[in-house]
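> example.struct
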């Protein structure tokens, strides 16, 4: 049995992996990187599914739902990065997703929200507002709306996968099949899309795609695996530390002009999420 501390550290590592994956998707041809990520997942997990029991029918409902949701999620990510910076889109999508998970948990699981929990929700909303705020009183509406749609998809597939792996008799059976299949919808879309040119697929680009695939496997594979040991809310709370990593990457590596102004709002979002989830 793993200790809570070790799982906490492992999830922090997953958060860093996800922020790094997102930075690659943002800085390169997003759809091309998504396609290569999916190919790496298929290559990696195809042999592994032969070493686990075949999931029963009731578990396949969760796997299929997760695959469909992940397809729309990855497509939403691709288009959101076309309109907005990593340090703008990422905090909104990740922070809002945790807020949505909290609300769904409260209403559908009949959880009572305390005064501190209500304050935490307000803190998250303030952080999200300041990420999108500009002195000119204008903000990037298309990127903002796409980030919110991404957040909704993240919230739903997180709950689906969290409950799916808990109901599965063999957690690795769920994990391997879900990670094998979840990239197929975006891969099919990319094949028929005009946004990808074969000229871009040189060795350097393929290398970035392979790295992105490994990071994607580590980032979400660890998160779903950890949900069998910790509550979904706790895992989500730790995972959203990736907001800080993504903002720092946007500032230091991608050289985004507005990233520096988004460090404090990103930190506010993480603080609000942490308070909120420890109240559930």
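> example.seq
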């Amino acid at each position: 049995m793993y200790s809570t501390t070790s799982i906490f550290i492992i999830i922090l590592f997953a958060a860093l992996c996800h922020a790094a994956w997102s930075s690659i998707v943002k800085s390169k041809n997003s759809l091309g990187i998504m396609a290569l990520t999916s190919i790496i997942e298929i290559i990696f997990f195809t042999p592994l599914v032969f070493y686990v029991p075949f999931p029963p029918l009731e578990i396949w409902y969760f796997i299929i739902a997760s695959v469909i949701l992940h397809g729309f999620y990855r497509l939403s990510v691709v288009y959101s990065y076309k309109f907005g910076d990593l340090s703008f889109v990422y905090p909104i999508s990740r922070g809002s997703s945790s807020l949505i998970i909290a609300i769904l948990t409260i209403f559908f699981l009949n959880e009572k929200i305390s005064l501190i929990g209500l304050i935490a929700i307000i803190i998250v909303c303030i952080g999200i507002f300041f990420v999108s705020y500009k002195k000119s009183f204008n903000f990037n509406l298309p990127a903002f709306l796409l980030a919110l749609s991404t957040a909704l998809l993240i919230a739903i597939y997180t709950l689906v996968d969290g409950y799916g792996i808990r109901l599965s008799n063999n957690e690795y059976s769920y994990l391997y099949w879900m990670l094998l299949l979840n990239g197929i919808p975006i891969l099919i879309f990319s094949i028929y899309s005009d946004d990808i040119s074969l000229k871009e697929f040189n060795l350097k680009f393929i290398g970035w795609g392979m790295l992105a695939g490994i990071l994607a496997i580590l980032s979400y594979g660890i998160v779903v695996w950890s949900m069998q040991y910790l509550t979904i809310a706790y895992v989500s709370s730790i995972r959203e530390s990736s907001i800080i990593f993504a903002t720092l990457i946007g500032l230091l590596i991608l050289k985004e002009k507005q990233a520096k102004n988004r460090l404090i709002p990103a930190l506010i979002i993480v603080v609000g999420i942490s308070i909120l989830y420890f109240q559930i």
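> remarks
The mean pLDDT is 83.
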